[in-house]
UniProtKB/TrEMBL annotation:
CC per GO annotation: endoplasmic reticulum membrane
Role this protein plays: Calcium-binding protein that interacts with newly synthesized monoglucosylated glycoproteins in the endoplasmic reticulum. It may act in assisting protein assembly and/or in the retention within the ER of unassembled protein subunits. It seems to play a major role in the quality control apparatus of the ER by the retention of incorrectly folded proteins. Required for embryogenesis and larval development under heat and ER stress conditions. May be important for germ cell development. Involved in neuronal necrotic cell death.
Full protein name: Calnexin
Family under the similarity heading: Belongs to the calreticulin family.
Amino acid sequence: MALLRLVITSAFIVLAATSSVHAEAEILDDGVTVETVEEDGYQTPQIDSKKAYLAEHFDDEEAFKKKWVKSETKKQGVDDTIAKYDGKWELQTPARRLLKDDFGLVLTTEAKHAAISALLNRPFVFSDKPLIVQYEVTMQEGQICGGAYLKLLSKGVNTRNDLKQFHDQTPYTIMFGPDKCGNDNKLHFIFKHQNPKNGTIEEKHAKKPTQRLDDIYKDKEPHLYTLIVRPDNTFTILVDNKEVNSGSLLEDFTPAVNPPEEIDDPNDKKPEDWDEREKIVDPTATKPEDWDEDAPAQIVDPNAVKPTGWLDNEPEMIPDPDAVKPSDWEEEMDGEWEAPLVDNPLCSSAPGCGEWKAPLIANPNYKGVWRAPLIPNPNYKGKWTPRRVPNPHYFNDEHPFRMTTITAVGFELWSMSPQLLFDNLIITDDEEVAAEWARQTYTLKRDRITSQAESLVERGLKFAGENPWVYAVVIIGSFIIVGFVAYMCCGPRTQDPEVEDVKKTDAVVEDDPHQSDEEREEEKTEESAEKEKQSKADLEGPDNTQESAPVIDTEGAGDGQRKRKPRKE
């Protein structure tokens, strides 16, 4: 077991050393940055304006003030005291600064309505190209209750004055993003569909994501939200570049885009003689004459016998004989004092005390209330359903992708948690453009977070996974370390023969050449004192007060003869 631990420890040492060398001598292959450096790893992202309907990085405050407009109106349908959109929006660096000179749009207030919006560079028309919406959200203080979604506003919002009037009832085409309150969290994808028959507008809600997304609301890290809606009516939702939801606009929304071709006839009524009872009580059944409904379910056991020694006249509980009435007890106020009850000690050694009663047992003659059996209903016609008729409101829209043109984007929010940070919003019709935008922004942040979180060993394991040859180095290095340690601990040893002789004999030897002069002088002083003490004892003679101790032969003990201390009688 010790050897196994040694091998494992050695492997970790070698792996850590390998990863350390790799981290210090970081090499950039094919332009891929392994570790982001705050000082020079980030530059404001650049994208061809012709490839994006909006590309907002929030790094340029002057450009932001020219493009984005805060709402100056009130929320509809709420009390005037809280209806105003007075939430505060500011451009700030993140609380956890990952990249130098990186700013985001921050909703700094809580429990206030806030709205801000911007016009697209040009309208997005749903025709033959996909719509890609992508942006980052960092819930810097987590989220208790509130949304962080955006709205793609429908045509009709065309000027800055229109943006000043942006509120909750402003027409939008798509709403997308996270929303949470308590334990209920959602990732919205709602689009508004226009009925081709009567022109009415109805919201269509996407099915729930295939996995729970609890961490995005509490880890306080940036997360990337991507929505892709394609001309073939399919959609995909990504969080941090991982798919969490996908499906069809025609099949995976509630209510469905297209109504059913047939509906229940609202004028059809169930006939009065329609019998839906599958079984009925047998009308010919009669209760047997020997059926006693009054017989009890339990009776006294006729075979029970009172146990010998049962104390009929002893109660189970008696007043405590040791109890004393409290000195402050006043019978006029407290009533007559009674000692508390305790278990009767006589009952502890007896089968029982008090009146003995035979136990109850199940009554073999008990049958309960008689009920007639059920039989098939001869008049049963089945479950009645109204007849189906053509749906007068039916239509078949095979192209729900062709939604209302988008002209602006906005955030219209209410949140119980402040410091919501939005960053790197892009609207495009090219998935690769959105991916490149993320590589210039979000990917750098994730790399920075990963490099801060990974320990030396974790980085070593990751490096080894990417470079299998490292495992060979680890194995060889581990065996070298184990072999060296084993040699030092268990290898052959040489012994000075003179030292062995000293251990085996009492012969006089020369002074130890490695012994200091002070140590030699100290030994000589101790020897002189011992000799003086011995001489004095010889002159004084034997001690007559004690019996002479027998001499014990200690040849080879190295200290001459030793005297055993006499026993006292």
